[in-house]
Protein: Type II methyltransferase
Organism: Salinadaptatus halalkaliphilus
Amino acid sequence: METTHRVVVDDARELGAIDDDAVDLVVTSPPYPMIEMWDDLFTELDPAIGDALEAGDGAAAFEAMHAQLDRVWDELERVLVDGGIVCLNVGDATRSVDGSFRVYPNHARVTESFESRGFDPLPDVLWRKPTNSAAKFMGSGTLPPNAYVTLEHEYILVFRKGSDRRSFEPRADRRYEAAYFWEERNTWFSDVWTDVKGELQELAYDDTDDLRERSAAYPLEIPYRLICMYSVYGDTVLDPFWGTGTTSLAAMCAGRDSVGYELEEAFLEVFDERVAAVPALSRSIGDARLERHREFVAQRREDGETLGYEATHYETPVMTKMEREIRLREVSSVTESADGYRLEHEPLAGE
């Protein structure tokens, strides 16, 4: 099996390099409105945003920032197939503007935007992000009533384009082989991910102070998990806010095609080193999934429980009929070309 991966250095407000209905899944984390690290970027996109911040009009700045993201959502509506899924990682912002402290609910504004474009919201996920402060409150310390909760979670908002789910041909191999284990389903489809933690992103590139500040990368487990949950082998995954390429890396390991859009070309140089490690990374992820499943099987047997089916490609029982054809993939070779990367994938051995 072969997958292709490309990155377009351009503005995601116009995804001109992507045809209509060419993307099956979007997994991304945009710049968060009203987080100070993104002020300069948003102001470059619309100088009126800087004027609003300088004037102390937080509400106007918040809306103007989201208006720029809305242009990207317009493009997602065009390039995504009917029934395709958008998984969008976003956090709310807390900020004092003109002496007034408040929360700016990015997740609510994004949900409103997608609904207005005909997307159906699906149940979302919360996960804990890293925080730089050990304090669990803001404001007046331990004196009531003027302290504020510290935001330590982010949202993974999930939307489907239209009300109908994607359809597949009966017994489609690319779907059944991309199944996940029963116990993975129970963890992945929980609305709170307690087993995923944020991580600080290290960029192996000279003079990267600005890049590091603007990367805001999420842990690989998040896009990898979402790609396995909401796509099948042969699908194309888009990240319009590509950054350090974590979504593309996850797509490579999961055996899906990917496209990224990124304004900063220097990020691509950082990514080259990450791609070199993909064969070993994909193998370790697959091996870990199989090992966790075998531990699950051993625990059920120890508890006196049985599993009703045998996996076709691995010497292990599984819980459900739908799991029998699971076939994990590992990257066997990586070839760089003028338009991106081509990867060969082989079935992961069972032992």
